[in-house]
Design goal:
26 strands, about 650 residues, alpha/beta
Length: about 650
């Protein structure tokens, strides 16, 4: 178990280094992360490599017993490189070149970026490859973050055209047919005529835009894999990680693809950031942790955990005493097995002066220092439990292409696909049922329940696994806007939604509408749900049943003959179809029914109190986590505000 801090020794007087590391050891650290933003320090002028500073850092870390995560420094290119190759800089939607001065300003399709990145990485890894104190290499930093996942420069334009040329095997006619470019006279005579999806009148072709989204993801994944291959070539036994930022489901990069070649996924964990009045809800924090764990379907590291207030230009909420420590326990509960705090000491210069650390600029050991010290001392006792895999019986499944399709055509102004996933997730979170958040290519055989919210693209390979899951006895939950389009982002001709699932679900969508209301209409229960009523909104499918039982029907004029929620029991499995966005109480009622049918146990606790079981025979523990600013209970146990209590199970 690695417990430590993110350290930027290049930002401080070198004479302070030994004192800093002594303080880290006193705090309970056994590791540090360094180097990810220090390209210029390592290569002040082109081709003149100097790693002596980090030699001294690693030597001091070795003396103090601190292991090292070393980052490739490509996230922040040096000024001399931007001056020599201005074309390396990315361009915004408006066609403005991003200037040197921030971070992540490079274009992922720049040949110069590849050329100079390879040089610095080869030199750096070759220099440190036999250094036993370096236990892991971090590739770049937060790839795709802060808008860096989009670039509209000429190199990206040319690379996009080449991507399409390769995809359609050089046959422009195939692209025209697939995209339906006869619409609005958009036929192309050559791949060189294909535009970037920049500002136009009305909108670009949805199939073109989906391929643009795929291309953007591929550009970042290719750059990630390029670095991984280099490190493995030079240091074959190296452990390679990447620190993913939050909000991955809204990025123009598929993190599940980006993590494939890594040994471990890592996460930079910020439940609150500058400008937020308060942290995101406890179930949303948990969802993001489970999403990171789901990238590789294994435990992960946290390379940046919050302790102080954060913000670049706008300062954020200060975690209350015990709250950030509680978030660290929650992270461990959801599959984190090593954790480092950002940052050891807050900066006095540069853009992150208001990203406060464990120590602030006053360099005083205060409350935050004591919280970290006590957390490290406590969590270390449960190392064996934290290293065991998290096992869940429920999966929430997402698809990068489907999420991109909704970015292209949102359809309802209120539709927030990750938000809808979190709404389902909250039901299980409130009942202390563990959940995996996994990509569409995941093996479903280990789950009893799988939810597929708004997976709008009907992909044969995914549907084949889904049908096998149901035939194997699983319970599947489909929602409105599921299997509406084909994999090219087009509507299939002659088929009703949910395309490919009508027989499995026992329903078909006769008509559909988008609403701009969350509670736009009533729904009325039938059968086992008779006497129950609720509200629906955002979107709704008018469902015609063929083999499915009606659980709720629309309760407004004109559409009362149509089902809103259905269930089809087969010889082996069960399929639910939710034809609209349901209110929280109705969502809870249906998910509770599914849990009971699937014989999945729940644990009662006060709102905001999380109960998690970790470990196995060697060490099994039960974690009780109070997210509330007031005392709360689990049975007879009363937890103080933001307390986490751990007991042997």
């Amino acid at each position: 178990m690695l417990l430590g801090v993110d350290y930027y020794p290049e930002q401080w007087d070198p004479d302070r280094m030994e004192e800093d590391m002594d303080t880290m050891v006193e705090m309970g650290c056994n590791g540090i992360r360094v180097g990810e933003f220090a390209w210029h320090l390592m290569e002040r002028t082109e081709g003149q490599y100097d790693f002596s500073f980090f030699d001294s850092v690693i030597a001091m870390a070795k003396k103090k017993g601190l292991k090292v995560i070393l980052g490739t420094p490509t996230a922040a290119i040096p000024a001399w490189l931007a001056k020599k190759h201005p074309e390396i800089l990315s361009e915004s939607w408006e066609g403005r070149k991003r200037v040197f001065g921030g971070r992540h300003v490079y274009c992922f399709n720049s040949p110069a970026m590849y050329k100079y990145s390879e040089k610095i990485i080869r030199a750096m890894v070759s220099h440190f490859r036999n250094e036993e104190q370096v236990i892991a290499w971090q590739v770049d930093n937060e790839l795709g973050h802060e808008g860096s996942d989009l670039c509209f420069c000429p190199r990206c334009h040319s690379a996009f055209q080449n991507y399409l040329r390769e995809k359609f095997q050089g046959e422009i006619g195939r692209l025209n047919e697939t995209y339906g470019t006869t619409f609005w006279s958009q036929e192309y005579n050559s791949f060189e005529e294909i535009p970037l999806p920049l500002e136009t009148i009305t909108t670009h072709n949805p199939a073109l835009r989906l391929d643009w989204e795929r291309f953007r993801s591929k550009s970042i994944v290719d750059f990630m894999n390029f670095q991984v291959r280099l490190i493995r070539e030079i240091a074959p036994g190296a452990l390679i990680i990447h620190d993913f930022p939050g909000g991955g489901l809204n990025k123009h990069v598929d993190y599940s693809r980006a993590s494939e070649k890594l040994d471990l996924a890592a996460y930079n964990h910020y439940p609150v950031w500058g400008g937020q009045k308060e942290p995101i809800a406890p179930h949303e924090i948990a969802f993001e942790l489970d999403y990171i764990r789901g990238l590789k379907r294994r435990n992960f590291w946290i390379t940046e955990a919050i302790m102080g207030a954060q913000g670049h230009d706008v300062t954020g909420y200060l975690p209350r005493p015990g709250q950030a420590k509680m978030w660290s326990y929650q992270a461990m509960a959801h599959g984190c097995e090593s954790l480092l705090y950002f940052r050891y000491r807050g900066a006095t210069k540069g853009a992150e002066q208001f990203c406060y650390g464990i120590l602030d600029a006053d360099n005083v050991r205060g409350r935050k220092f004591l919280e970290v010290q006590s957390f490290f001392a406590d969590i270390r006792k449960y190392e064996r439990a934290m290293e065991t895999p998290v096992r869940s019986q429920v999966a929430i499944v997402y698809d990068y292409d489907s999420l991109a399709s909704f970015r292209i055509q949102r359809q309802s102004l209120l539709l927030d696909c990750p938000g809808e996933m979190k709404k389902f997730y909250k039901v299980f979170f409130d009942r202390n049922v563990p959940v995996d958040v996994v990509p569409a290519d995941a093996d479903l055989s280990e789950y009893r329940v799988a939810l597929f919210p708004q997976m709008i693209l009907a992909k044969p390979e995914v549907q084949s696994r889904v049908k096998a899951f149901v035939h194997g006895g699983g319970t599947l939950v489909l929602t409105y806007r599921n299997a509406v389009k084909d994999e090219y982002n087009n509507l299939p001709f002659g088929e009703r939604a949910p395309v490919g699932y009508c027989e499995l679900a026992g329903v078909s969508v006769v008509e559909t509408e988008s609403l701009q209301e969350i509670d736009g209409f009533p729904i009325v229960g039938e059968g086992a749900f008779a006497g129950k009523a609720g509200r629906g909104g955002i979107f709704r499918d008018m469902l015609e049943t063929k083999g499915a039982e009606v659980l709720y029907r629309y309760g407004d004029p004109f559409y009362a003959q149509y089902a809103a929620v259905t269930r089809r029991r087969s010889e082996h499995g069960v399929v639910y179809y939710l034809g609209c966005a349901l209110d929280e109480a109705t969502t809870g009622t249906i998910m509770e029914t599914i849990l009971q049918e699937s014989r999945i146990g729940t644990i009662a606790s006060d709102d905001g109190v999380e109960v998690v079981v970790r470990g196995k025979e060697e060490q099994c523990i039960r974690m009780f986590i109070n997210h509330n600013a007031v005392p709360a209970s689990v049975g007879d146990m009363v937890l103080a505000p933001f307390e986490c209590r751990i007991e042997e199970a």
